[in-house]
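Recap slide: LIM zinc-binding domain-containing protein, sequence and predicted structure.
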Amino acid sequence: MFGSSGACAACGQAIPASEFVMRTNAPQQPLHVFHIKCFACSKCGSHLMQGDRYYMLAGSLVCEQDWQKLMKNANAATPGAPVRKGKVGRPRRSRE
């Protein structure tokens, strides 16, 4: 089973063991697992595909374009919020 709850990090619904998932994982960061349909930017809603670059901002996915917009607007940046850069890989099968 991925994650501590077996639930999608975006919608909170359970992820069956047979379903393909997208996950984020970096050293010293919590594992976030998403339904493929939920693996989308939290700002604009665009679905992230294999090869797309994204950022994790306080547990939410942000596409590279929206990340650049956030960085240009210094008032929108939240000091101290965990930020992680990643690149979308291929979907994985969920395990229980």
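Residues 64-72 form the longest helix (9 residues).
The mean pLDDT is 78.
(End of recap.)
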